[in-house]
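User: My collaborator sent over this chain with a note saying "see what the structure looks like." That's all I know about it. Can you take a look?
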Amino acid sequence: MAAAIFTPKSDLLQNKKNRQRVTLPFKQPQNLLILDFDGTLAPLSPDRENVRPYGGIVDVLNEITESGKTRIAFVTGRPTDQLIQLLGFDGWMEIWGEHGFERRTRDGKVEYFDGSGVLTMVDRVMRMFVMDDFFRRLTRAGLAGHLERKRAGIAVHWRGLPEKRQEEIKQRTFGILLESFSDKLAHVQVFEQGLEFRFTRRSKGDAVNTILKSAPPGARVAYLGDDLTDEPAFQAVEGRGESVLVREEFRPTNAKRWVKPPDELIAYLKQWRDKDGEHV
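Assistant: Without extra context I'll predict from the sequence alone. Here is the result:
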């Protein structure tokens, strides 16, 4: 397995002037590059708060953006503000967080979605009360140290733990799931090394479909992801662009192409950058 390459935070910030420059008005980009984060641009890690992109990723993404030919959007299971901190830069990116529930635009505006429309404040308050009840149940089951509370979900993580401890967490989690099965506001999203109680029907595929609506005819489009939660996004780009599975080991998938991180991933992004340069 390829070694994870971490980029120091100081390196992530070294192109600050360039990032500020590309936030100024410019011609609408023609192409669309849509990216997952964890497991795709950065290695999976039990230390979710301190994970960083593979070395070289930030530089090549900045180069792609600076060409003015490609619009980059991130679609992640994380909240948008968390991803901003982990990437180490801000200003030019569009982020869809929590599997399409939350959108942060290039100008910093944040919206919340459910179904096909924007979520109202009343809906958000009702959802919060139900989530609070779920969170209390999971905490009483002894899972507090493994929970990630989001705006539209509660994730239970067991990545990196001993196998026996993983099984204990799974049993307790599925016990809560059985207790709550009749609750129509919640459903379960399984991901690698964990699961999430979701309080919205949004998926990464919904986010990608919304992004694609603004793609001009003839745009070059790609979605890169690694996890089971990326499968709806792979399906969304079918017939519109390229779906790329980014993993060290292959698994069955709807994606049409497979690259290994970090070297093959960086090579793919550099090829994208170079194709943009051909049309400058």
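A starting point for your reply to your collaborator: DSSP finds nine helices and 13 strands in the chain.
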